[in-house]
Amino acid sequence: MRKGLRNTATALFMAACLAGGTALAADAAGGASVPGDKQTPGHHTYMFVLSWEPEFCYLHGDGHPECAAGDRATSFGATHLTLHGLWPQWSSACSLSAKDNDPTWKDRVLPPLSPAVQGTLAEVMPGIASGLTLHEWQKHGYCSGLSADQYYAQAGAMVKTLGAAKAGTLLAEATGKSVTRKALCDALAADFGEAARQSAVLGTGKAAFLTQITFTLKAADDGTTALDAAHLTDSPADQAGRCDKGNPDEALKVAGFK
Protein backbone atom coordinates (compact mmCIF):
# COMPACT_ATOMS: atom_id res chain seq x y z
CA MET A 1 0.00 0.00 0.00
CA ARG A 2 1.27 3.47 -0.75
CA LYS A 3 2.59 5.00 2.43
CA GLY A 4 0.51 8.16 2.10
CA LEU A 5 -2.67 6.14 1.67
CA ARG A 6 -1.90 3.90 4.62
CA ASN A 7 -1.06 6.85 6.85
CA THR A 8 -4.19 8.72 5.76
CA ALA A 9 -6.41 5.70 6.39
CA THR A 10 -4.86 5.14 9.80
CA ALA A 11 -5.25 8.79 10.71
CA LEU A 12 -8.90 8.76 9.69
CA PHE A 13 -9.49 5.61 11.72
CA MET A 14 -7.90 7.11 14.83
CA ALA A 15 -9.84 10.34 14.41
CA ALA A 16 -13.08 8.41 14.13
CA CYS A 17 -12.21 6.46 17.27
CA LEU A 18 -11.67 9.68 19.18
CA ALA A 19 -14.60 11.63 17.81
CA GLY A 20 -17.32 9.04 17.17
CA GLY A 21 -19.79 7.65 19.62
CA THR A 22 -19.43 10.19 22.39
CA ALA A 23 -22.57 8.86 24.02
CA LEU A 24 -20.77 5.55 24.49
CA ALA A 25 -17.47 6.91 25.76
CA ALA A 26 -18.02 5.34 29.16
CA ASP A 27 -18.54 2.00 27.46
CA ALA A 28 -15.11 2.25 25.83
CA ALA A 29 -13.61 2.70 29.25
CA GLY A 30 -15.36 -0.45 30.45
CA GLY A 31 -17.79 1.33 32.74
CA ALA A 32 -21.14 1.09 30.98
CA SER A 33 -23.71 -1.61 31.56
CA VAL A 34 -24.40 -4.23 28.90
CA PRO A 35 -27.33 -3.27 26.64
CA GLY A 36 -30.33 -5.57 26.83
CA ASP A 37 -29.81 -7.12 23.41
CA LYS A 38 -26.24 -8.19 24.16
CA GLN A 39 -25.36 -11.71 25.23
CA THR A 40 -24.68 -12.22 28.93
CA PRO A 41 -20.89 -12.62 29.29
CA GLY A 42 -19.57 -16.09 30.01
CA HIS A 43 -22.25 -18.05 28.18
CA HIS A 44 -20.83 -18.37 24.71
CA THR A 45 -17.82 -19.24 22.61
CA TYR A 46 -15.98 -17.11 20.09
CA MET A 47 -14.79 -17.82 16.59
CA PHE A 48 -11.46 -16.08 16.21
CA VAL A 49 -10.91 -15.40 12.50
CA LEU A 50 -7.52 -14.51 11.04
CA SER A 51 -6.83 -13.72 7.40
CA TRP A 52 -3.75 -14.18 5.24
CA GLU A 53 -3.56 -10.71 3.73
CA PRO A 54 -1.56 -11.37 0.53
CA GLU A 55 -4.08 -14.01 -0.57
CA PHE A 56 -7.03 -11.83 0.48
CA CYS A 57 -5.69 -9.01 -1.67
CA TYR A 58 -5.12 -11.34 -4.60
CA LEU A 59 -8.71 -12.57 -4.43
CA HIS A 60 -10.55 -9.43 -3.26
CA GLY A 61 -8.16 -6.51 -3.64
CA ASP A 62 -10.20 -4.38 -6.02
CA GLY A 63 -11.82 -1.59 -4.04
CA HIS A 64 -9.88 -2.33 -0.84
CA PRO A 65 -7.40 0.51 -0.20
CA GLU A 66 -5.29 -1.65 2.12
CA CYS A 67 -4.45 -3.79 -0.90
CA ALA A 68 -3.05 -0.91 -2.96
CA ALA A 69 0.56 -1.22 -4.09
CA GLY A 70 3.29 0.35 -1.98
CA ASP A 71 4.55 -0.40 1.52
CA ARG A 72 2.20 -3.37 2.01
CA ALA A 73 5.19 -5.65 1.32
CA THR A 74 6.86 -4.47 4.53
CA SER A 75 3.71 -4.41 6.67
CA PHE A 76 2.88 -6.80 9.52
CA GLY A 77 0.29 -8.46 7.30
CA ALA A 78 2.84 -9.32 4.61
CA THR A 79 4.17 -12.19 6.73
CA HIS A 80 1.65 -12.62 9.57
CA LEU A 81 -1.97 -13.56 9.96
CA THR A 82 -4.13 -10.48 10.53
CA LEU A 83 -7.35 -9.80 12.37
CA HIS A 84 -10.61 -10.31 10.54
CA GLY A 85 -12.89 -10.72 13.52
CA LEU A 86 -13.78 -12.20 16.90
CA TRP A 87 -17.31 -13.54 16.61
CA PRO A 88 -19.51 -14.53 19.57
CA GLN A 89 -21.33 -17.76 18.73
CA TRP A 90 -24.97 -18.19 19.74
CA SER A 91 -28.49 -17.97 18.36
CA SER A 92 -29.41 -14.42 19.23
CA ALA A 93 -31.14 -11.49 17.59
CA CYS A 94 -28.11 -9.42 18.52
CA SER A 95 -25.96 -10.90 15.77
CA LEU A 96 -27.52 -9.25 12.74
CA SER A 97 -26.36 -7.13 9.86
CA ALA A 98 -27.72 -3.89 8.43
CA LYS A 99 -29.60 -5.74 5.70
CA ASP A 100 -31.63 -7.55 8.39
CA ASN A 101 -33.27 -4.25 9.38
CA ASP A 102 -32.04 -4.59 12.94
CA PRO A 103 -33.50 -1.51 14.68
CA THR A 104 -30.39 -1.07 16.84
CA TRP A 105 -27.90 -1.30 13.97
CA LYS A 106 -27.61 2.46 13.43
CA ASP A 107 -26.91 2.94 17.14
CA ARG A 108 -23.95 0.59 17.14
CA VAL A 109 -21.38 3.29 16.55
CA LEU A 110 -17.77 2.49 17.35
CA PRO A 111 -17.01 4.05 20.74
CA PRO A 112 -13.68 5.81 21.32
CA LEU A 113 -10.73 3.45 21.63
CA SER A 114 -7.63 3.98 23.73
CA PRO A 115 -4.45 5.08 21.95
CA ALA A 116 -2.84 1.71 22.72
CA VAL A 117 -5.67 -0.23 21.08
CA GLN A 118 -5.73 2.14 18.11
CA GLY A 119 -2.02 1.55 17.59
CA THR A 120 -2.36 -2.23 17.77
CA LEU A 121 -5.26 -2.33 15.32
CA ALA A 122 -3.41 -0.08 12.88
CA GLU A 123 -0.75 -2.80 12.75
CA VAL A 124 -2.70 -6.08 12.93
CA MET A 125 -6.00 -5.18 11.21
CA PRO A 126 -5.28 -3.76 7.75
CA GLY A 127 -9.01 -3.78 6.99
CA ILE A 128 -9.40 -0.59 9.05
CA ALA A 129 -8.70 1.21 5.78
CA SER A 130 -11.95 -0.26 4.41
CA GLY A 131 -14.07 0.29 7.53
CA LEU A 132 -13.73 -3.27 8.83
CA THR A 133 -13.32 -2.13 12.44
CA LEU A 134 -16.75 -0.50 12.54
CA HIS A 135 -18.37 -3.38 10.65
CA GLU A 136 -16.97 -6.00 13.02
CA TRP A 137 -18.09 -3.99 16.05
CA GLN A 138 -21.61 -3.52 14.68
CA LYS A 139 -22.13 -7.14 13.73
CA HIS A 140 -20.07 -9.01 16.32
CA GLY A 141 -18.23 -6.98 18.94
CA TYR A 142 -21.34 -5.17 20.14
CA CYS A 143 -22.81 -8.56 21.01
CA SER A 144 -19.84 -9.74 23.07
CA GLY A 145 -20.81 -8.16 26.39
CA LEU A 146 -17.49 -6.28 26.40
CA SER A 147 -16.71 -2.64 25.82
CA ALA A 148 -15.23 -1.80 22.42
CA ASP A 149 -11.84 -1.17 23.98
CA GLN A 150 -11.86 -4.50 25.83
CA TYR A 151 -13.07 -6.34 22.75
CA TYR A 152 -10.42 -4.99 20.39
CA ALA A 153 -7.66 -5.08 23.01
CA GLN A 154 -8.06 -8.82 23.48
CA ALA A 155 -8.48 -9.49 19.75
CA GLY A 156 -5.35 -7.53 18.92
CA ALA A 157 -3.38 -9.21 21.69
CA MET A 158 -4.30 -12.64 20.36
CA VAL A 159 -3.06 -11.73 16.87
CA LYS A 160 0.26 -10.68 18.41
CA THR A 161 0.39 -13.90 20.46
CA LEU A 162 0.05 -16.04 17.35
CA GLY A 163 2.48 -13.91 15.39
CA ALA A 164 5.20 -14.40 18.02
CA ALA A 165 4.54 -18.14 18.41
CA LYS A 166 6.17 -21.04 16.56
CA ALA A 167 3.29 -21.21 14.09
CA GLY A 168 3.63 -17.50 13.36
CA THR A 169 7.35 -17.85 12.73
CA LEU A 170 6.74 -20.87 10.51
CA LEU A 171 4.29 -18.92 8.35
CA ALA A 172 6.59 -15.92 8.13
CA GLU A 173 9.41 -18.16 6.91
CA ALA A 174 7.10 -19.96 4.46
CA THR A 175 5.76 -16.75 2.88
CA GLY A 176 6.04 -17.06 -0.89
CA LYS A 177 6.58 -20.80 -0.55
CA SER A 178 4.54 -23.57 1.08
CA VAL A 179 4.15 -25.45 4.34
CA THR A 180 2.61 -28.85 4.99
CA ARG A 181 -0.62 -29.12 6.92
CA LYS A 182 1.17 -31.38 9.41
CA ALA A 183 3.98 -28.90 10.02
CA LEU A 184 1.59 -26.03 10.63
CA CYS A 185 -0.73 -28.06 12.87
CA ASP A 186 2.22 -29.47 14.82
CA ALA A 187 3.43 -25.93 15.43
CA LEU A 188 -0.02 -24.83 16.64
CA ALA A 189 -0.15 -27.82 18.99
CA ALA A 190 3.32 -26.98 20.32
CA ASP A 191 2.22 -23.39 20.89
CA PHE A 192 -1.21 -23.94 22.41
CA GLY A 193 -1.49 -27.61 23.38
CA GLU A 194 -2.98 -30.65 21.69
CA ALA A 195 -6.46 -29.09 21.86
CA ALA A 196 -5.35 -26.90 18.94
CA ARG A 197 -5.78 -29.90 16.65
CA GLN A 198 -9.53 -29.87 17.27
CA SER A 199 -9.86 -26.09 17.55
CA ALA A 200 -7.84 -24.74 14.63
CA VAL A 201 -9.38 -24.80 11.16
CA LEU A 202 -7.11 -24.08 8.20
CA GLY A 203 -8.94 -22.35 5.38
CA THR A 204 -7.71 -22.76 1.82
CA GLY A 205 -8.83 -21.48 -1.55
CA LYS A 206 -8.00 -22.41 -5.11
CA ALA A 207 -4.82 -24.41 -5.64
CA ALA A 208 -4.49 -24.96 -1.86
CA PHE A 209 -3.50 -21.37 -1.05
CA LEU A 210 -3.90 -20.57 2.65
CA THR A 211 -6.66 -17.97 3.11
CA GLN A 212 -7.37 -17.96 6.84
CA ILE A 213 -7.12 -19.79 10.15
CA THR A 214 -9.93 -19.86 12.69
CA PHE A 215 -10.03 -20.99 16.31
CA THR A 216 -13.01 -21.72 18.55
CA LEU A 217 -12.44 -20.24 22.00
CA LYS A 218 -14.36 -20.44 25.26
CA ALA A 219 -15.43 -17.22 26.95
CA ALA A 220 -14.53 -16.73 30.60
CA ASP A 221 -17.21 -15.74 33.10
CA ASP A 222 -16.51 -12.06 32.42
CA GLY A 223 -16.82 -12.50 28.66
CA THR A 224 -13.08 -12.32 27.95
CA THR A 225 -11.07 -14.94 26.14
CA ALA A 226 -7.47 -15.64 25.11
CA LEU A 227 -5.55 -17.70 22.60
CA ASP A 228 -4.22 -20.35 24.98
CA ALA A 229 -4.81 -23.94 26.06
CA ALA A 230 -7.28 -22.92 28.76
CA HIS A 231 -9.65 -21.31 26.25
CA LEU A 232 -9.33 -23.53 23.18
CA THR A 233 -12.36 -25.71 22.49
CA ASP A 234 -13.47 -27.92 19.62
CA SER A 235 -14.55 -26.39 16.35
CA PRO A 236 -17.54 -28.06 14.65
CA ALA A 237 -16.67 -31.64 13.69
CA ASP A 238 -17.85 -31.13 10.13
CA GLN A 239 -15.10 -28.57 9.45
CA ALA A 240 -12.92 -30.33 6.88
CA GLY A 241 -10.04 -27.94 7.52
CA ARG A 242 -9.65 -28.89 11.17
CA CYS A 243 -6.11 -29.86 12.04
CA ASP A 244 -7.16 -33.39 13.01
CA LYS A 245 -8.70 -33.96 9.57
CA GLY A 246 -7.49 -33.95 6.00
CA ASN A 247 -4.22 -35.04 4.45
CA PRO A 248 -1.33 -34.16 6.79
CA ASP A 249 1.09 -34.12 3.86
CA GLU A 250 -0.92 -31.56 1.90
CA ALA A 251 1.25 -28.63 0.89
CA LEU A 252 -0.44 -25.33 1.72
CA LYS A 253 0.77 -22.47 -0.45
CA VAL A 254 1.52 -19.28 1.47
CA ALA A 255 1.10 -16.28 -0.81
CA GLY A 256 3.36 -13.28 -0.60
CA PHE A 257 3.12 -9.72 -1.86
CA LYS A 258 5.10 -9.04 -5.01
Structural notes for this entry:
The protein is of the alpha+beta class and 258 residues long. It has a domain at 45-166 and 212-239: Ribonuclease Rh, Chain A (Alpha-Beta Complex). It has 9 helices and 7 strands; from the N terminus they run ααβαβααααβααββββ. The strands form 2 sheets. Strands 1, 2, 4, 5 and 6 form a 5-stranded antiparallel sheet that branches. Residues 1-35 have low confidence and may be disordered. Residues 1-25 form the signal peptide. It holds the Pfam family Ribonuclease_T2.
Produce the secondary structure layout.
Blueprint: H1 3-19, H2 25-28, E1 45-51, H3 53-60, E2 82-89, H4 115-124, H5 132-139, H6 148-164, H7 166-174, E3 178-180, H8 181-192, H9 196-199, E4 201-204, E5 210-218, E6 232-233, E7 251-253
Antiparallel strand pairs: 1-2, 1-5, 3-7, 4-5, 5-6
**Based on the structure given, which CATH architecture of the domain at 45-166 and 212-239 is correct?**
Alpha-Beta Complex
Number of strands: 7
Helix content: 25-40%
User: How many separate helices?
Assistant: 9
* Quaternary class: single chain
Proportion of β residues?
5-15%
Mean pLDDT: 84
- How would a crystallographer describe the biggest sheet? 5 strands, antiparallel
Written as H for each helix and E for each strand, in order along the chain, the element string is HHEHEHHHHEHHEEEE
The geometry reads as globular
Reading off the top of the CATH hierarchy, the class of the domain at 45-166 and 212-239 is best stated as Alpha Beta
Structural class: alpha+beta
Cα distance spanning the termini: 12 Å
The CATH topology name of the domain at 45-166 and 212-239 reads Ribonuclease Rh, Chain A
Q: Which regions are unreliable across 5 or more consecutive residues at pLDDT < 50?
A: 1-35
Protein name: Ribonuclease T2
Keywords: Signal
Signal peptide: 1-25
Family: Belongs to the RNase T2 family.
